[in-house]
Specification:
Order of helices and strands of chain A: HHHHHHH
Oligomer: heterodimer
Strand content of chain A: under 5%
Distance between the termini of chain A: 55 Å
Shape of chain A: globular
Number of helices of chain B: 20
Radius of gyration of chain A: 18 Å
Largest sheet of chain A: none
Order of helices and strands of chain B: HHHHHHHHHHHHHHHHHHHH
Helix content of chain A: over 70%
Largest sheet of chain B: none
Helix content of chain B: over 70%
Number of strands of chain A: 0
Radius of gyration of chain B: 21 Å
Shape of chain B: globular
Strand content of chain B: under 5%
Number of helices of chain A: 7
Number of strands of chain B: 0
């Protein structure tokens, strides 16, 4: 069981690196969606011995939201903005890839040093969570197009979700559902703002948002 | 179950406002729901519910000490909202009114959340419901501000979710059940795993500190306050910040119970003083009088953080200051909104002589300036004095001196901008605008009422409030 879970987390961590290396927005959205779906089925793996209703609902809702609804919202925003590339990021693709890889190694080392319960010693959950949070932050800071930044935000949230899986036995369904709902609304609202920025500035390059300064 | 009404009355009103067909009469939902909410909130404060609180949710002493202030501020903003939205009749206000009411309901929920996950959900929902309020003006600048608000605020609030999970793991690692209710976490006390508690504290402070606008996480604030309409700025500066401060206090009580209270106090002290310093320095160079208000808000968040760091009497004074902050920020933002509309500009290079063009709003703005810079006999003077005293009493003499120095710098910065725009000769552009904007009683009375409340809080602090604050202090530090 632990082996399969670690395999999935490894897959999610690999997707982090792919996300850092790509400049095409459709593939970035696809990677974030794929990672969301991989994360969505993890509760089923962790609770393989006992599929309660709650676990099934969380898994289904996560896969549907992170894998289908949110990417669809982002694709729509991308289409109205009529762009599909993040050509000149603030942190280049190679440097961000190297930083991401270094961050991944750092996350694994750090996770080994943190005090964990015995049943989590063999698991990559904490390392994967830290690596995804770092990747998300790198994308948020390093990319110049609004949609790539939203994808960065999604990957950051995915990392937090991974960490939340440590608490799967104690977090009630209501809280999980609320968090998921908030995330979806957040992306929806962001999509609207992205659309308005595109109309107002005729660009989705957030570096052009520099009217407001001291 | 009366406390549930605090959430559902505004939310139902928001739903009704969203369905209401008429753009002209829709704003009346704001004062109606605001009045109902204020009556409920004060009713609950004066006659607290006897039954023990639900573990997840309840109008506990902390909520009772904070929520009525937000409710009162909302009522003032709502009363101003009716004439304001009539002036802005060219903009559809369906989303605005619904969002404003929803934000009130969600703020009530966040104040009363006794579960970390629930608290996070409510705070995030407040953030999202205020997005349409921020870009009501529909200008490119407003969208830029909204984008920064979403990006910085969203990242901050995401980190606080991570912190919440870390606190849950601290409970699991300490042999607990990982229950995220504050009651369970505090009951577990020193059994919580210390390293995880410290990690959680840092993440939660950064997260909710972003929402509060503590430096260096304040970068979204000048843009958002500068571009949003006055009533939205007032609600953000007096309401949403209060939500975040309540969250920080709840988390800090857990950290205290876990035996790391010393660390928590020290971080709050440092971040509070740093916020005050940053705010004071930016105030000295501010030229835009709406952005200036944002830095003033950062300064007051620093004051709250310092009061919380000192604890005991300082914490009591911080509750006092929350009320003063809400009332004075309301008066400042609403009168600044009047000036901004009459002047047609917002920097000291474009605006001057407002005492001639809009004498009543200008007088209110100056009076509110004296209130916010803690001149007696306004409330902020007494709460800040109490914070200084308790800072000295707990042996942080240097912190108190630093605090006073920052207050002085902020005073110079604020008065410089305010007097530059209020006095002098009116500019040509403003005189032309004058015909279009008349200073009616409807736009002057709400800020005047809020200012009078700030004065009343200082001259005669009601006993009911004092007791509410004492009860809240007792809730947060069970063993004094």
């Amino acid at each position: 069981m632990s082996g399969l879970l670690n395999l999935l987390i490894g897959l999610a961590m690999g997707l982090n690196l792919v996300a850092l290396g790509t400049g095409r927005l459709p593939s970035l959205i696809r990677i974030a969606a794929l990672q969301g779906m991989v994360l969505g089925i993890m509760p089923l793996v962790i609770e393989a011995h006992d599929w309660r209703m709650m676990v099934l609902v969380i898994a289904a809702a996560t896969v549907a939201m992170k894998g289908l609804v949110i990417p669809a919202l982002l694709r729509r925003a991308m289409r109205t903005a009529n762009i599909d590339r993040d050509l000149d990021p603030l942190i280049g693709f190679l440097p961000s890839l190297l930083l991401g890889a270094a961050g991944m190694i750092g996350a694994v080392v750090l996770a080994r040093r943190l005090p964990l319960l015995p049943e989590h010693h063999e698991s990559l959950l904490v390392a994967g969570a830290l690596a995804s949070v770092l990747t998300g932050l790198l994308l948020l800071i390093g990319r110049s197009k609004a949609i790539s930044q939203v994808c960065g935000y999604l990957i950051l949230e995915n990392g937090i979700y991974l960490f939340g899986l440590l608490l799967i036995h104690s977090t009630p369904l209501l809280v999980e559902a609320g968090i998921l709902l908030d995330l979806t609304v957040a992306v929806f609202v962001t999509g609207i703002i992205v659309d308005r920025i595109q109309r107002a500035f005729d660009s989705l390059d957030t570096r052009k948002l520099t009217v407001l300064r001291e | 179950m009366k406390e549930l009404l605090l959430i559902f009355v505004p939310l139902v009103a928001a739903g009704a406002a969203a369905l209401w067909p008429d753009n002209r009469t829709r704003p009346w939902f704001l004062p109606a729901a605001g009045l109902a909410h204020a009556l409920l909130a004060f009713g609950l404060m004066l006659r607290p519910p006897e039954s023990p609180f639900h573990a997840w949710f309840g109008c506990d002493p902390l909520a009772r000490a904070m929520l009525p202030a937000v409710s009162l501020l909302f009522l003032g903003c709502a009363a101003y909202g009716v004439p304001y939205l009539r002036l802005r009749a060219e903009r559809p206000n369906r989303v605005f009114v619904a969002g404003f009411l929803a934000a009130l309901g969600l703020m009530s929920a966040a104040h009363m959340a006794r579960h970390l996950g629930l608290l996070w959900i409510a705070t995030e929902a407040v953030t999202l419901s205020s997005v349409p309020l921020l870009h009501f003006n529909n200008t490119p600048r407003a969208f830029e501000a909204t984008w920064k608000y979403l990006l910085v605020g969203g990242t901050g609030i995401a980190l606080s979710l991570l912190g919440s999970f870390c606190l849950g793991y601290a409970s699991l690692h300490g042999g607990g059940a990982g229950d995220l209710t504050f009651a369970a976490l505090m009951a577990q006390g020193t059994a919580l795993s210390r390293p995880w508690v410290l990690i959680a504290w840092v993440l939660l402070l950064v997260g909710y500190g972003t929402k509060m606008g503590l430096a260096p996480m304040h970068t979204w604030k000048p843009d958002a306050y500068g571009e949003a309409p006055g009533i939205v700025g007032a609600m953000l500066a007096g309401g949403v910040t209060t939500v975040a401060f309540t969250a920080v206090l709840r988390v800090r009580a857990v950290v205290d119970a876990a035996g790391a209270g010393e660390v928590a106090s020290r971080t709050l002290l440092v971040i509070g003083l740093f916020s005050m310093l940053v705010a004071a320095l930016f105030l000295l160079s501010a030229r835009d009088f709406k952005r200036m208000l944002a830095y003033s808000s950062v300064e007051h968040m620093g004051i709250l953080s310092l009061g919380a760091a000192v604890g005991g009497v300082g914490l009591w004074a911080a509750f006092f200051h929350v009320w003063n902050n809400s009332m004075t920020k309301g008066a400042l933002f609403l009168s600044a909104g009047n000036l901004r509309r009459a002047a047609g500009g917002r920097t000291i290079d474009e605006v001057s002589g407002m005492s001639v063009i809009t004498p009543r709003s200008a007088a209110l703005f100056v009076a509110a300036l004296f209130a916010v810079t803690a001149c007696p006999p306004f409330g902020p003077f007494f709460s800040e004095l109490l914070i200084v005293k308790s800072t000295f009493a707990t042996g942080h003499g240097w912190a108190a001196a630093f605090f006073l120095g920052c207050l002085l710098l902020a005073f110079f910065g604020l008065t410089r901008v305010v007097f530059a725009i209020v006095y002098g000769r009116p500019r040509q552009a403003a005189r032309e605008m004058d015909h279009r904007y008349r200073e009616t009683l409807a736009v002057v009375l709400p800020p005047a009422a809020l200012l009078l409340l700030a004065l009343g809080l200082g001259l005669a602090t009601p006993n009911a409030l004092r007791e509410a604050w004492t009860a809240a202090v007792r809730q947060l530090s069970p063993t004094p």
